[in-house]
Design a protein that fits this description.
Rossmann fold, single chain, alpha/beta, six-stranded mixed beta sheet
């Protein structure tokens, strides 16, 4: 049965699977080429169109910087249910992601989370996201809120400077052997771990990256080593996402990420952005099918390695790219 791209609802996200990902991605390309003037014009400049794009390696990837200067929307609806906005730095224009159908984001998030971790209702969701709570439109905060809503546990919530209370909550939940997800920006997790070392047996600690000049820059391996020592953990988990995406990737061990069903990465040559491969080391291109109403094909400023099985490692950022609040650490 041909993929019906006109559905324009969460069924698009839920239908994505490894065996039909490529076919759906090509249909999404055709849909966005025909219904997104900005992307259409960009493709035309690269002489890519409906006739000559026949594989995902030939699809043009929109530079992520376009989200700073343009309203990237596909389709006839130009009113946004959500607007995700990056933090940026002083004097820098922030990226804005106009989400015209929030149900697609929630479906993508929950489907991906359940793939890796099971039902969020089984967890208490605790979040250490101080710098992001200061911004109403932070996608990471919305992600945490969505998981908390699904958790429906009275202890789920955000903690800013309430470290002693958070320590008490974690200790109590550990005694109850309650499954916990402690989601945090890197500098906040390090600060909390320094102040409150303890043994965590029922808790998954997930760092989202982001030092933002708050501490000495450390590699991901160094950060994980500190957190594992302070909390007597075997592994630290990681989440990979950004303002311009609606899907996430997760690393359950060693900073090696795996994509959810709505997401796939390709790698482009650092010196030739049109030289795209399925694996290798270079700049990362992301296909995010959940971005059906913006742009599903994003050329990021991250540098990484994609392995033959589709997993990937983030190595850092291009030298000329702007530092963003949720930028990931170099390894």
């Amino acid at each position: 049965m041909p993929y019906n791209i006109s559905l324009n609802n969460s069924d698009i996200v839920l239908s994505a699977a490894p065996d039909n990902f490529t076919a759906i991605a090509l249909d999404v390309f055709r849909y966005q080429y025909e219904n997104n003037k900005l992307y259409h014009d960009y493709c035309d400049l690269l002489h890519a169109n409906l006739t000559n794009v026949k594989s995902i390696l030939q699809i043009p990837f929109l530079p992520v910087s376009f989200f700073k200067a343009h309203k990237v929307i596909t389709g006839n609806t130009h009113s946004a249910e959500l607007i995700f906005e990056s933090s940026g730095t002083t004097g820098e224009q922030a990226s804005k992601h106009y989400v015209t159908n929030a149900a697609i984001y929630r479906a993508s998030l929950l489907q991906g989370f359940e793939l890796f971790y099971g039902d969020p209702a089984e967890y208490v969701i605790l979040a250490l996201l101080p710098s992001y709570l200061e911004r109403q439109n932070a996608s990471l905060v919305y992600m945490a809120k969505t998981l908390m809503e699904q958790s429906r546990h009275p202890e789920s919530g955000f903690y800013i400077n309430e470290w002693e209370k958070l320590s008490e909550v974690l200790s109590r939940l550990e005694k109850e052997k309650q499954k916990v997800l402690l989601l945090g920006v890197t500098f906040a997790l390090l600060d909390f771990a320094d102040a409150f070392p303890m043994q965590l047996s029922s808790t998954i600690v997930m760092e989202t990256g982001g030092m933002k000049g708050r501490r000495e820059e450390l590699t991901r391996a160094e950060v994980h080593a500190i957190l594992k020592k302070q909390w007597q953990l075997h592994e630290i988990h990681s989440e990979y996402g950004m303002t311009e995406l609606l899907s996430q990737a997760y690393a359950t061990s060693g900073g090696i990420f795996k994509c959810t069903n709505t997401m796939r990465l390709l790698v482009r040559d650092i010196n030739d952005p049109l030289d795209v491969s399925e694996h290798g080391t270079g700049c990362l291109n992301i296909i995010d099918l959940a971005n059906i109403n913006s742009c599903a094909f994003i050329a990021t400023e991250d540098i990484g390695t994609i392995f033959p099985n589709g997993s990937f490692e983030v190595l850092g950022r291009m030298d000329h790219s702007a530092l963003r609040g949720c930028s990931l650490m170099a390894v």
